[in-house]
Amino acid sequence: SCVIEVPIDNSNDVLEIDCSQLPEHASEICDILENEGSALRFYRLFALEYYRQGLAEEAVFALKRGIANAKANDQTAKVPLLNFLASVYVQKAKAMPATRPAAASAAAGDGGRDMLLQMATALLTEAERISRTDPNTYLVKGMLAMTKRLPDAALIQFNNTLRIAPLCLAALLGKARALYGRRQFQQALAIYQQALTLRPTGKPDPRIGIGMCLYRLGHTDDARRALKRATDIDPAAAAPHLLLATMELNEIKRKVDPRINRKAADPATLEGALAEAAECLRSAMAHLQRAYELQPGNAATLICLADRLFCKSDYAGARGLAERALGASDTMALQAEAHYQVGRVYHAEKQFDLAYEAYQRCLAINERHSLARYGLGQMQLQRTDMSSAEAAFQRVLERHPRCVEVLRALGYLHARLPNTKAKALEYYEREMQVLAEEAAEHAKGLGRPADDVAEWFDDANLFLEAGLLYEGVSAKKARRAYAVAARVLERKGCGSGSDDAIPELWNNLGVLSQLTGEPDEASSAAYSQATERCIRMLDDVRARAADRKTAHPSRPSNELRRLENTLATTTYNAARFYEHCDLWERAERLYQDILTRIPAYTDARLRLAYVAFFYRGDSEGALAHIGQAIEADAKRPTAWLMRGSIELHRKNVQDARRAFEHVLKDIAKHDVYALCSLGNYYLAAGKSESTRAASEPNSASSAAKKARDLSIQNYKRALEFFDKCLQLDERCAAAAHGAAIAIAERGFATEARRLFQEVRDAATSGLGPLALCNPAGELVCKTPGLTTAAAAPGAAPLRLDDMRVGCDVLLWSGINTAHACVEIGNYRQAILVYEACVKRIHDTTAALENAGSACDADRLVISALEGAANGARPEGAGATDAPVAAKMSKAERSERQRVTRDLRLYLVRAQYIQAKSTKDVNIMRAALQEIRALCAEADISIPEAELKDDSLLSEDPGTGEDKKPDAESDAEAGAGSDAAGALALAGNGNSNDAAGTASDGKKPRIRLSPEDSLLLFDLALVEQLVAQLASDMPISQRSLQDVDTATSDLERSTTAFTFLASWGKSMQKKHHKLLYSPRLASERAGYGKSLVAKLARKRQEQVDFERQRQEQAE
After folding, report:
1. Which of 443, 468, 494 is the last residue of a domain?
2. Are residues 338 and 436 in the same domain?
3. Does any domain span residue 795?
């Protein structure tokens, strides 16, 4: 034992004190030292002995007494005591559990960790003030910085220590640790090796640091040897065993990961790789057990053991160890990891609220903990907090962009959010790409061809989810996704004869194979193959069910029923395909086959009625089929709804009304389709009465008043039905759209615009096809176009009738939104919406043409993975979403062309009105460009023979040189209106129209329809207004070219008006109907001639101005 000799004051004798028999309280020693007037170094010596014996509080007491007894004229002597006391505080702080910043203030008042570090900082500041050359001051400051997790600051202090004492072992070890914290592993390794050379048997053992650096540098075997050597030198050290266990566990991951270890990828060597992994696991557990025995309170060891118990599903043991680690951890990182282990245990035990709290505590300490962030996102998903879950997954993805689990979670999340299906597909595609790249790289490493990486996918759900989303985007991509899912299932033993097969998948493959642009014959053969596969699977299940009948009496019945329903769905879908490919006999045979096997399949009977009426024109036969369906099930609303729809097509509106009312009164009073149909009925009745009132010569007559009253009543009834629809289904766009039309027809354009916009926004938000469709699949609720009051003189109002394109609620709500914007004077917004509608119909038409099959809002791929998979009735699986593979018909193509033309007319009208009100010549030029394009596409122009007739140009149609037409404002308001067509003179003013000039030189017959002549009138009007606006522009804002262009446009306009005035008069003499006033055209021609003269003067002024400006510039 150590003996300390204390000199006795005023004597040569010494007092020997045996350190093994120190007093229990340091106050006795301090009293002796004070009585003898001992030097301060004796206080430090006794404090060191107390500290070595584990009596840290007595050591602190002795150091404080020594510092208090320091003489004022010898402050340097107390520097060692200050440094020692600061180092004791630092060590005590390190031994305490780490606390979050929020808890620091609470712990400060009772000697908490942060308070100890603050006191140590104050002591070191005092020591540095007294002496700046003591290396121990800088050494303890470095230790303090490392405790605060500030490796950069610690490195500065350790370098200061080594500058004064180059061989200070503690400073060398501290510097190496700081470099390790800065991830400078090579430099840290060199310092550790230097420390080992200086003191091979010193503590802490530098070999531990050497092993950690070597491992980080990728030298795993050397690291393992260094750590094993450390265990040989000091068998009681727990840290080397813990590190060796961690290395072995990481080695297991490498041995079983086929992307790293070729043995794990090759089935021939997989067993050997698993054996090596098992050996590593035994070694790891042995080291963990030894570390736990040596240091049971080590937080890192407890966390590792908790992780292993979790992997063994020993959740209670794992949670107990993790909670013990919470109380023993001395760093924030270990605190965070312990919270994560607790959270994942609660997660596995389905205690989601507790798991949520544990993950949050972990992230409050370490916000970069990716696993905790991922777990928190899962808990937020479980709570349906989608926005927070997405934010959590996105933060993980930022750090790990190739993490397939996060990509899958984000895909799953967006697939279930409205209007984010495209985002979901993006994440699924990224996951597929990552998996494919890894598979290709792995195959390359094994020397195998990587042509088909699908064999490396293990999860069919990824492709099933993606396939469901692809159905509404791309039939080819959906088919490829389902094909990969099928191959994965077959490789995993889930083929056609497996209990775990998904027979609905084969149905979808059969349907989607028809939508990839193949010829009809090939598509029919492919669908037949899919049907045969379903039959074969059904036969296999029946055979297995017979063998298991005794053991599982209920399972075969349910499975057979599901597969029989799936077969019915597949047959129904094939019949729908044949139906839309004009193969009526095949379709009818399949429908009859369904009815033979399942007589209750009413939808097959209704499809027979549909074929009879819509494709054969046999209304009586169709009604007979519907009658049979009603006899079989009089309470089936679908049959009555189809009867009402067919009666509407036959113009038997009262019979149709009675059918819809029967549904509401006797079958389903909340049937949305019937309610909406009756709303449409009363809406049409209101329009009819409104038109009759407007046609009365005397608006004040009793007949006109009665018609207006009836119109108002019908509109109110329509609103009642539409309102009831929306109460039952707030996403029913057809009802909202009809209500908005009724409101607009009554003159409330502002309210109607708001409602139209809401319908449009709902359709855009991904809520699915919002048109109200008949359960039979084809009969759609009409959505008539809203017309506006403004019209050109003598023009009939333009109405947008809806055929197949009318099912596009997004399109029609957009058109009517723009109409309403025009009515309230918001022309700029109207222009934007019209342009969007034109683009939409162009895009959808192009998609139909390119795909070769219809895929509009009411013609979607069937999603049979739902109804039949859940044991639904056969009709539920395919009745509402049956596939349609018909090519776009001539009627539909013609309808789309007509709607496109009308939309462009609306656009020109809005541009015209806005340009005239704002005097914006650029907008008017845009209107001119659009209307010229329309005329050019329709090949409409003044016959060339008429242009050569000088009498047309010499005629004086005007009433005065500078007088504008009396009805100018009315005419201009009608340009491009609902009634007015677009206008289209050829660009050079002399192009040929469809009539052209006869080859024999005879004057051709003028073949202009009333609509064509109105287009010419509007074109001439816009050209004249462009010239007028250009003429009125300030001279500094226009150019000579603008004036010349305006003059050219004006000449064409005057020529057109002159022709239309003459041609119109001749047509009136023959009692032909005109949509414009020849008198107004004559007045316009006269005004144009006066404007030509005005432009000539403006041109000369422009020439003089530009010449003067050029001279000034020179």
Report:
1. 494
2. no
3. yes
C-alpha 865/C-alpha 465 separation (Å) is 11
d(CA 5, CA 18) in angstroms, rounded, equals 9
- Please state, in angstroms and as integers, the Cα–Cα distance from residue 18 to each residue in 3, 4, 21, following that order: 4, 7, 5
Q: Which domain holds residue 365?
A: 322-400
Residue 701's identity, in one-letter code, is S
Q: How far is CA 97 from each of CA 46, 94, 358, rounded to the nearest angstrom?
A: 28, 8, 17
Question: What is the DSSP-derived secondary structure letter of residue 853?
Answer: S
Mark which of 494, 510, 545 sits at the end of a domain.
494
Which alpha helices (DSSP H) does 777-889 contain, by range?
809-823, 827-851, 874-878
- Give the Cα separation of 96 and 333 in Å (integer): 14
Two tokens at 665?
Answer: 């009164």
Buried b (16+ CB within 10 A) or exposed e, 581-593: bebeebbbebbee
CA distance 1102 to 1096: 10
Two tokens at 312?
């063994």
Counting as low any pLDDT under 50, the low residues of the chain are 101-110, 495-500, 551, 554-556, 766-806, 852-886, 945, 947-963, 966-1006
Q: Which amino acid is at 42?
A: F
What does the H/E/C string look like for 5-32?
Answer: EEECCCCCCEEEEEHHHCCCCHHHHHHH
Please state, in angstroms and rounded to a whole number, the distance separating the CA atoms of residues 514 and 529.
12
Same domain, 484 and 436: yes
Residue 383: both structure tokens together: 């709570």
Residue 428 falls within a domain, yes or no? yes
pLDDT tens for 961-1004 read 444 554 343 433 333 333 333 333 223 333 333 233 333 333 43
pTM over 0.85: no
Q: Are residues 816 and 747 in the same domain?
A: yes
Structure token pair of residue 725: 């629809």
**What's the pLDDT score for residue 873?**
28
DSSP string, 962-988: SPPPTTHHHHHHTTT-SSS------TT
Residue 111: count other Cβ atoms within 10 Å of its Cβ. Answer: 13
Q: What is the DSSP string of 1058-1075?
A: HHHHHHHHHHHHTT---S
Is residue 807 domain-shared with residue 685, that is, in the same domain?
Answer: yes
| Same domain, yes or no: 958 and 977 | yes
- If one counts the domains in the chain, the total is 4
* Residues 801 and 755 sit within 8 Å (Cβ to Cβ): no
Within 8 A by CB and 6+ apart from 643, the residues are: 623, 626, 630, 659
Per-residue pLDDT tens for 143-164?
A: 999 988 899 999 999 999 999 9
Are 365 and 339 in contact by the 8 Å Cβ rule? The answer is yes
Residues 835 and 972 in one domain: no
Residue 796 lies inside a defined structural domain of this protein: yes
Backbone phi, then psi, for 14, in 5-degree steps?
-130, 155
pLDDT at 423: 92
Cα separation, 830 vs 826, whole angstroms: 6
Q: Please provide the DSSP assignment of 870-914 as one string.
A: GT--HHHHHSSS----PPPPHHHHHHHHHHHHHHHHHHHHHHHHH
Q: Are 404 and 393 in contact (CB under 8 A)?
A: no
Number of neighbouring beta carbons within 10 Å of residue 1022: 31
CB of 571 closer than 8 Å to CB of 535: no
Is the CB of residue 967 less than 8 Å from the CB of residue 793? yes
C-alpha to C-alpha distance for 899 and 925, rounded to whole angstroms: 23
How many angstroms separate the CA atoms of 397 and 47, rounded?
53
Burial 413-431 (b: 16+ CB within 10 A, else e): bbbeeeebbebbbebbbbb
Give the Cα separation of 1005 and 1007 in Å (integer): 6
- Judge whether 604 lies within some domain: no
Residue 395 shares a structural domain with residue 431 = no
